[in-house]
Automatic annotation (TrEMBL):
Its EC number is 4.3.1.3. PROSITE patterns: PAL_HISTIDASE. This is Histidine ammonia-lyase. Pathway: Amino-acid degradation; L-histidine degradation into L-glutamate; N-formimidoyl-L-glutamate from L-histidine: step 1/3.
Length: 514
């Protein structure tokens, strides 16, 4: 299998590059331009290190200890000590893809020529990524200000040959041994280099990029599931007409409505809302699906803009400017990233909430327009999907808790020098949990909607809906029938959504969704 090559230049990287390195194990190469920028910035730092004036991170302590001048004989120890002391994470291990993303993003900033590290440090990060060595990083330790300090420190610890890391075979071993086994020499850090390896928003940014990659597929999946539920409830697709979306011109809403219309094209189930029990309008959870999913899409567009700006940024303190000055700054504060991470969790929670309401409507015989209670084979003897909705409701409830903003909180640190922090790492961790929950919620709606469509005997579903049902059954998710052990079906439905197979089944009929 060909492995993508990602070249890191001095002007930043793309979101696709981050995903390729984090999830696809793409190989990393540093451009000649970036190596030149690294060398030029390092010459500035070397000149300052030789001079008498105190410079933060070069010849002083850190944080609240920045008032102490550090002599040249102690500076290597100073840089090594900041890595050791700041590698103070606790809790469960962070996922491999997140660690690879944050390492790659730190490399991106080093290659900007704004940090003043030597080219050898940047090359070492690239070598570690290419060798498939992943430092052990832990859940707790970042306040999202002065960068993701503890997570990045654990990565830097591997670069100096200390701590533990995971090899490409998944076996955890001492980092020094793993480096030696791959012919990689650890680095002895010099002035500013320890600080430069720690002082970035790379963890929260990496999780933002990965979260957007996940949500891109999940919002399409949500449009498909909503369309299937509308079809199963004999709803009307007239509310999805482009001219109605144009009256309220939010681009995300128009995109979601277009996706739903594409799925429903050719359906024999829609438009029956005026038959046996006439309805003037469908319920909000059906009729307003594009408005809710569309608002989430527009939220993603804003978050993507923030991510693109961060991907073009060089986050460090102090930074080497183009005119050769080295200046302290506050660009390490994670507020811009933290806000959108929280915003995405809020939007995802609402998407999960409306999906659960549609599922509940499918299961309630008083609101499902002719479907059996809980879509059971023999209601009373069989409970059908009653408990599937319980599971879905529990997931929605958790998503609502995860939607409480982390960025609204701040706990001062470093003897009140760092007296306002972003909590962006916590916002990112919440979003990852929310994405997992949303995947499961949509899987339950899909399971219920496809079963309900099958129970509408005598009415033909849309070709795209038929393709979904066939693909879902081929994936091991069983259809209507007497009660059985339900958890395996739900797990298979989750895997179907998570793997992108739901959207793929639809697009094989409709062409690309938007």
């Amino acid at each position: 299998m060909d492995v993508r090559l990602v070249v890191v230049g001095a002007s930043g990287v793309s979101a696709g590059d981050v995903v390729a390195v984090a999830r696809g194990d793409a190989r990393v190469e540093i451009s000649a331009e970036a190596l030149g920028a690294l060398g030029a910035a390092r010459s500035v730092v070397d000149a300052l290190a030789a001079g008498p004036e105190p410079v933060y991170g070069v010849s002083t302590g850190f944080g609240a200890l920045a008032t102490r001048h550090i002599g040249q004989d102690l500076r290597a120890r100073l840089q090594r000590n900041i890595v050791r002391s700041h590698a103070a994470g606790m809790g469960p291990r962070v996922e491999r893809e997140v660690v690879r993303a944050l390492m790659f993003l730190r490399l991106k900033t080093l290659c900007s020529g704004r940090t003043g590290v030597r080219p050898v440090v940047a090359r070492l990060i690239a070598d570690v990524l290419n060798a498939g060595i992943t430092p052990l990083v832990y859940e707790y330790g970042s306040l999202g200000c002065s960068g993701d300090l503890a997570p990045l420190s654990h990565c830097a610890l591997t670069l100096v040959g200390e701590g533990e890391a995971e090899g490409p075979d998944g076996v955890v071993a001492p980092a020094g041994e793993l480096l030696a086994a791959h012919g990689i020499a650890p680095v002895e850090l010099r002035e500013k280099e320890g600080l430069a390896l720690l002082n970035g928003t790379d963890g929260m940014l990496g999780m933002l990029v990965l979260g957007l990659d996940d949500l891109e597929g999940l919002y399409k999946a949500a449009d498909v599931a909503a369309a299937l539920s509308l079809e199963a409830l004999l709803g009307t697709e007239r509310v999805l007409a482009p001219e109605l979306q144009a009256v309220r011109p939010h681009p995300g809403q128009a995109a979601s409505a277009a996706n739903m219309l594409a799925v429903l094209r050719g359906s024999g189930l829609t438009g029956h809302h005026q038959d046996d029990a006439p309805r003037v309008q469908d319920a909000y959870s059906v009729r307003c699906a594009p408005q809710v999913a569309g608002a989430g899409r527009d939220t993603m567009a804003h978050a993507r803009l923030v991510a693109e700006r961060e991907l073009a940024a060089a986050i460090d303190n102090p930074v080497v400017l183009a005119d050769g000055r080295v200046e302290s700054n506050g660009n390490f504060h994670g507020a811009p990233v933290a806000y959108v991470l929280d915003f995405l969790a809020i939007a995802a929670a609402d998407l999960g909430s409306i999906a659960e309401r549609r599922t509940d409507r499918l299961l309630d015989k008083n609101r499902s327009h002719g479907l059996p209670s809980f879509l059971a084979d023999d209601p009373g003897v069989d409970s059908g999907l009653m408990l599937a909705q319980y599971t879905q409701a529990a997931l929605v409830s958790e998503m609502k808790r995860l939607a409480v903003p982390a960025s609204a909180d701040s706990i001062p640190s470093s003897a009140m020098q760092e007296d306002h922090v972003s909590m962006g790492w916590s916002a990112a961790r919440k979003l990852r949990a929310a994405v997992d929950d949303l995947t499961r919620i949509l899987a339950v709606e899909l399971y219920a909607a496809t079963r309900a469509i099958e129970l509408r005997q005598g009415l033909a579903p849309a070709p795209a809906s038929r393709a979904v049902i066939e693909a879902l059954r081929a994936a091991g998710v069983r259809g209507a029938g007497p009660d059985r052990f339900l958890a395996p079906d739900l797990a298979a439905a989750e895997a179907f959504v998570r793997g992108g197979h739901l959207v793929a089944a639809v697009e094989a009929v409709t062409g690309p969704l938007v």
